[in-house]
Specification:
Chain lengths: ~350, ~325, ~280
């Protein structure tokens, strides 16, 4: 079993809001344990308001008030890839600096990193493509200028304008995008093209992990296919890890190797894509899969009954119990742990098992 | 009367640009279709195909450049103060439930206003009864609705509230403009099932405008596929989506991600970069991307041809007659 | 009331509320003044503040404290009239121009823009000289209001323009709502913070403008206002002669008034802003 490249341990991140004197605590990430491997595409699926965006923010260490890390840890695994040492980016902590230690083959607790290290890590080790990221491009400069800024701020020494453009053009064409977009302003490109440029930018410095938040939402169906195609190309080329968060199960089916289903701040089921779609165990997952319309089948389908709980006011025990038709007494009282149905398939549900696996 | 709504050669031309360089974009180009009573008709296409412009013209928010809209056999004229053609028999549901209602007003105000403006109840008590009836029809209850502002509802709930408001006047035609795009995938079924129920139990017709072919397949009876202002294929939904004839329909159908990891996309596609270039193309607008493009496709616009009971706008089928 | 409670949490509102209460009290006290403000030599001239004359007396032989109460009252009356009338005009023009569009919009905006571009001060001076003999509080108020609506009309019009494109306008139309009701019910809540803050700013502006005119001697100097008091004080060179109690009274009063009005407008419009209101809804 490989050591995972990114791992969380009992992660808890809450929003603490203060509205006119009353305090509201939104438990967006409520004890999450996941392990993500190298060279895989990991999908996180769930409805809006289940906490997936917050989970991503904690994974990339972008935690700012009112979001607070209340408990647990996030670990990055720093690795030698194919025997090539990753360019030294600086000591990980002041004590490392004393001993002149650079990348080591081990795990790093993200909360122990200095802000400067985190800045270097961003885009070189882990890239974050946030939701609606088409707006991330600077609207008043041409795309190639954004590329130049990017390259300039992440390589030491001066890099000539022409060299930067050459690098950019090379990468763009490698990924199958037309080179003339470099000379365009963002508003001249369509939404789908902007999204793909943002993904290309994120992949520019060959990061080990790319995290995408709803990369295909609000895009047309054919454009969506192009974006998924691009993500797959990037992953095949860089052999890195891509974490895709989306509520669109069709996209998950097409792109992910493994999928984690998130509900009310917790992961309730996790397995390979084939198992999740072919043999879902958790009632919520089953509802999710069954409610999707399929071509060739016009029989009536039902969506998940009820509505998702507010993260500020979670039900007791298992958060799904108010909507679950099979809820047992124990479901109301206690949150189940994970039961491992197969080596690669774990479920948090009292119906399935005792939940001894964490 | 077998045609509830008939659209005849509807066209809308927008002129963009300044005095020196005017660009004419035909957003809706000679579109004709009809909707029968108790039928769900889907108007499908990607963004920029003209379906929203067509909906706005049908509702009267936009003036057509050419063409006619006939409702229940009469070509309705706009009445003095009202901006829309016919509001009692025709109502609309919009894409963004949070945009549909004024965030600073309680949602129930729209209900009471509708009731008062159309004279649907004689006093407050009756009005509340009517509202309760419609809320129940969409699966909500009065207690969780009364006195609330839009921000206090979830997206799915608010969209159902929007449908309930539309049902107050007992319309025979609902224009639903992307009603589930902003709703979570897991909740879409409940809204789309509502449309089915309304059709089956109350005989309401729905013009279902969407870019989501999967729900269009699930809920509609007939479908028209729009591309750059034209209808390129139209017919019973089973035929059009399970056995697509036009190359664009094929591309669209194949690009819908299926929730089945065994059915992943295997072919690669290329995307068009600049949309308005395609709009200004001579001949068939899809010729740039069509795998079966012939010479005639680049110069002449294809005519509508019937293949079985499906209408296709493609040169390849014209030769088959 | 919950609204007041929320407002009092803002220190600016507290300060301005307090100051305004004091000033309004002073204005009210003018009814009890033992001296007629338009007469001369009712008391010994130029005496320092004392127990009998709280703020001393001026060179016209008037008690400054009681003059002050009249001054405040009259300044407020003029500015209220100016602000209210110009609000009404601005709302009417802005809403009609915004909703109707087309040629109505163009004509109204042409008039509004002309009023903005014309050198206000010269016109005002000319008009003031013309109507000087009829000048009283109401006339001055109306005069000022003619010039106070143009800017805000355009602001209100742009709010309406943006709201017109939003989907809830369509919902209202589909609900059968007529144009007038639509504008009032749907758009006014968005325009409220704008209207409120411009109302209060307008009051400040009117007071300031009146003072300017008064110092130039263009108003009826027999009516005590903050401006005319200042004018008399300057004419009699009270500053050079060390009679600080005369000059400082209108200056301090107007200073506090301006600050209070400004903070009042800022705190109320922040409270009424649709964006913060939406956040507060449902709590």
């Amino acid at each position: 079993m490989n050591t995972p490249i990114l791992r969380t341990e009992k992660l808890k991140a809450y929003y603490v809001l203060d509205l006119h004197g009353t305090q509201k605590v939104v438990k967006a990430v409520n004890e999450v344990d996941i392990e993500i491997q190298e060279n895989e595409v990991y999908g996180i699926a769930g409805e809006s308001g289940c906490g997936k965006t917050t989970l991503l923010k904690t994974l990339v260490a972008a935690i700012e008030p009112p979001l607070r890390l209340v408990g647990g840890k996030v670990y990055y695994r720093v690795i030698d890839f194919e025997g090539i040492e990753i360019a030294a980016i600086g000591p990980l902590s002041p004590s490392d600096a004393e001993e002149d230690r650079w990348w080591t083959d081990g795990e790093v607790d993200v909360s122990s990193l200095t802000p400067e290290t985190k800045r270097r890590l961003r885009w070189e080790y882990i890239s974050y493509v946030p939701q609606g990221s088409m707006s991330v491009l600077n609207p008043v400069t041409k795309v190639k200028e954004t590329y130049r800024d990017f390259i300039g701020s992440h390589t030491s020494g001066q890099i000539a304008k022409e060299e930067a453009f050459e690098l950019a053009k090379e990468q763009i064409t490698e990924l199958g995008l037309p080179p003339k977009i470099l000379d365009a302003y963002p508003h001249q490109l369509s939404g789908g093209m902007r999204q793909r440029v943002t993904i290309a930018l994120a992949a520019l410095l060959k990061p080990r992990i790319i995290v995408c938040d709803e990369p295909t939402t609000a895009l047309d169906v054919v454009v969506q296919r192009g974006v998924v195609q691009l993500l797959k190309d990037v992953q095949a080329k860089l052999k890195n890890t891509i974490i895709v968060v989306t509520h669109d199960m069709g996209v998950q089916a097409n792109i992910a190797d493994r999928v984690g289903i998130m509900y009310a701040g917790k992961i309730v089921e996790e397995s390979t894509t084939e198992t999740i779609f072919g043999n879902p165990a958790h009632p919520y997952t089953r509802y999710l899969i069954d409610s999707l319309p399929r071509f060739g089948d016009k029989t009536t389908r039902e969506s998940v009954p009820g509505s998702p709980p507010s993260l500020a006011d979670l039900p007791s025990g298992c958060p799904f119990h108010p909507r679950c038709p099979y809820a047992l007494d124990i479901c109301v009282q206690q949150m189940p742990g994970f039961t491992r149905l197969e080596p690669n398939h774990r479920v948090a549900c009292w119906l399935v098992g005792e939940g001894k696996d964490g | 009367m077998d045609k509830l709504l008939e659209i005849d050669h509807l066209t809308k031309v927008f002129t963009l640009g300044s005095m020196l360089s005017r660009v004419r974009i035909t957003a809706v180009d000679n579109v004709s279709f009809y909707i029968k009573p108790a039928e769900i008709f889907a108007l499908a296409g990607e963004s920029g195909c003209g379906k929203t412009t067509a909906a706005r013209m049908i509702l009267g928010f936009e003036e057509p450049t050419l063409g006619e809209i006939v409702h229940k056999g009469k070509r309705d004229e706009k009445s003095k103060d009202k901006k829309v053609w016919f509001t009692e028999g025709v109502q609309a549901i919009f894409q963004d439930p949070f945009g549909t209602f004024n965030p600073l007003r309680k949602v129930e105000r729209y209900f009471f206003e509708t009731i008062r403006n159309y004279g649907l109840a004689s006093d407050d008590g009756e009005a509340v009864e009517l509202i309760k009836e419609k809320l129940n029809a969409v699966g909500l209850n009065y207690e969780e609705f009364s006195g609330r502002y839009p921000s206090e509802f979830s997206g799915g709930q608010l969209q159902r509230v929007s449908i309930a408001r539309a049902l107050l006047t007992e319309p025979t035609l609902l224009i639903a403009d992307e009603p589930v795009s902003m709703v979570d995938a897991s909740l879409r079924m409940s809204i789309v099932n509502l449309f089915k129920k309304l059709k089956e139990e109350s005989g309401v017709s729905v013009l279902y405008i969407t870019h989501d072919l999967a729900t269009a397949y699930y809920v509609s009876d007939r479908i028209a596929i729009m591309f750059r202002g034209h209808i390129v294929e139209m017919g019973p939904v089973e035929e059009v989506l399970m056995n697509p004839k036009h190359s664009y329909t094929k591309l669209l159908r194949e690009s819908v991600p299926e929730a089945d990891p065994t059915k992943r996309w295997s072919e690669r596609i290329s995307l068009s970069e600049l949309e308005h270039e395609e709009y200004l193309r001579q001949g068939c607008k899809f010729a740039g991307r069509c795998p079966g493009a012939m010479d005639i496709c680049k110069s002449e616009e294809p005519k509508d041809v019937y293949v079985g009971n499906v209408l296709v706008k493609c040169h390849r089928y014209a030769n088959l007659i | 009331m919950k609204v007041l409670r929320d407002l009092f949490e803002d220190y600016r509102f507290c300060f301005s509320f307090g100051v305004l209460v004091i000033i309004l009290t002073l204005a009210f006290l003018s009814n009890f003044s033992p001296y007629d403000p338009t007469l001369w030599n009712v008391v010994p001239k130029d005496t320092k503040p004392s127990a009998e004359h709280l703020l001393g007396t001026d060179s016209n032989g008037q008690d400054i404290f009681w003059q002050g109460t009249y001054a405040v009252r009259n300044s407020l009356i003029i500015s209220f009239i100016a602000a209210l009338v110009s609000r009404v005009i601005a709302i009417l023009v802005g809403m009609v121009a915004g909703y109707k569009g087309g040629s109505t919009d163009r004509v109204l905006m042409f008039i509004s823009d002309s009023l903005l571009v014309i050198p206000l001060f010269l016109i005002l001076v000319m008009l003031a000289m013309l109507v000087r003999q009829f000048m009283n509080l109401v006339v001055l108020g109306l005069l000022l209001s003619i010039f106070g609506w143009a800017w805000d009309a355009r602001l209100i019009r742009s709010v309406i323009l943006s709201l017109r494109e939003r989907e809830f306008t369509q919902t209202a139309i589909l609900s059968g709502t007529g144009t007038v009701k639509l504008v009032l019910n749907e758009y006014m809540p968005f325009a409220m913070p704008l209207i409120f803050s411009t109302l209060i700013n307008n009051i400040s502006w009117a007071i300031g403008l009146e003072m300017t005119l008064a110092i130039l001697g263009l108003v009826n100097l027999n009516i005590p206002t903050l401006g005319t008091m200042l004018n008399w004080a300057i004419v009699y060179q009270s500053l050079f002669l060390g009679r600080w109690w005369w000059v400082l009274t209108p200056v301090v009063l107007s200073l506090f008034l301006f600050i209070a009005l400004y903070w009042l407008s800022v705190s109320i419009s922040e409270y009424l802003d649709p964006r913060t209101r939406i956040q507060r809804v449902g709590t």
